[in-house]
Amino acid sequence: MQDLDLSYLKIKGGHANLEVYKLREDFFGCTESGTPVSEYTLENSNGFVVKILNYGGVIRELWVPSELGKPVDVVLGYDTLIEYERNPGYLGAIIGRYANRIASGRFVLDGVVYQLALNEKNRPNALHGGVQGFDKRVWSASGKVGTDGSKLILTYTSPDGEEGYPGNLKVTVIYTLLSNALKIEYFAVTDKPTVINLTNHTYFNLSGGGKINDHVIQINASRYTPVDENLIPIGTIEPVAGTPYDLRQPSDLGKALERLSTTPVGGFDINYVLDNEYAAFVYSKSTGIAMKVFTSQPGLQFYTANRLPEMLGKRGVLYGAHSGFCLETQHFPDSPNHPNFPSTVLRPGKQYHEWTIFEFSFLRG
């Protein structure tokens, strides 16, 4: 057990408020190829604890204090590294170079056609960065504790041609545990024109277990991008009004899922076009835990784990369809093939920078 930095005493409003932040590194295991992987624990004296691996930047645990008298782990995950190496649902991981789907794994940039690696289960599309995306990489890690919370800084350089993407891409992802929130920042630079779309694929369950039907959700988006049978956007941006995807008002998630139960997707797996930086609100009627999502990203993929296979997760809990939900803040799917979508092109001399904040509070029923 190794402390990466010192705790600090934060002073608010002239009164000593013992808001102490800590950061610890522990050995988690070795990959099948023999590379050691660490788990980093960020915590504060308010009772928030997050555990993150430098394998895939995985958020493995996120403990939130609750009015039930004990903290609740609000994310899905596994107990062992070998499970994360398999990880069919991308639980908790950083997704890149390109989150979501690119049709046929092909796009044209500056007149050059690029063919990406195709995912076996998602042919004919490229999904979540390819066969060996950022979720399968061991990132370099460093940490520090400062006046703005405890930080874990992950870096990875994706070489030119990796999974078919052009350019040597230097990526930094910073996790910051704040007083009552977790902030994720994404930075990248390239030496050749490329496309990039980074997100985090954490599955939340604010009830700490079971199905997510007891949640209330609101997504601040008046438009969305309709998709075809392969979940590729058809290229239009349309109003959510009058569709099952209208979540502009707080909505019972169980009832919303029921309305989509007979569709081929069997739930939500759709990109919302956000109205502003306040992207979403979710609340568990079981625990009283509420979460707000703020982001600089233009879109949010709301996914209700419709295709999550039945499997054992942390502490022997059985996961499956609708065991969690993802709020993947990102650019739109297949943007390189739709000029009317916000651009995902990154050029030399420019810096990619996006951020997302998951903020927690408590509501009494």
Describe the 3D structure.
Helices cover 4% and strands 42% of the residues. The protein has a single domain, classed as Beta-galactosidase, Chain A, domain 5. It has helices spanning 81-86, 253-259, and strands at 2-3, 10-12, 15-17, 21-30, 36-44, 49-53, 59-64, 72-73, 94-95, 101-102, 106-109, 112-115, 126-127, 140-146, 149-158, 169-177, 181-190, 194-195, 199-200, 215-219, 223-225, 238-239, 251-252, 269-273, 278-284, 289-295, 299-303, 311-312, 318-319, 326-330, 345-346, 352-362. The radius of gyration is 20 Å and the shape is globular. The protein is mostly beta strands and 365 residues long. A hairpin with a 4-residue loop joins β5 and β6. A 9-stranded antiparallel beta sheet has the order 14-15-16-17-32-26-25-20-23. Pathway: Carbohydrate metabolism; hexose metabolism. It comes from Fervidobacterium thailandense. Keywords: Carbohydrate metabolism, Isomerase. InterPro entries: Ald1_epimerase_CS, Aldose_1-epimerase, Aldose_1/G6P_1-epimerase, Gal_mutarotase_sf_dom, Galactose_mutarotase-like, GH-type_carb-bd.
Low-confidence stretches: 1-16
Question: What structural class results from the helix and strand content?
Answer: mainly beta
CATH architecture label name: Distorted Sandwich
Estimate percent helicity. under 10%
What is the CATH topology? Beta-galactosidase, Chain A, domain 5
How many helix segments? 2
Radius of gyration: 20 Å
Number of domains: 1
Strand order of the largest sheet: 14-15-16-17-32-26-25-20-23
Pathway: Carbohydrate metabolism; hexose metabolism
Binding site for beta-D-galactose: 100-101, 201-203, 269
Family: Belongs to the aldose epimerase family.
Keywords: Carbohydrate metabolism, Isomerase
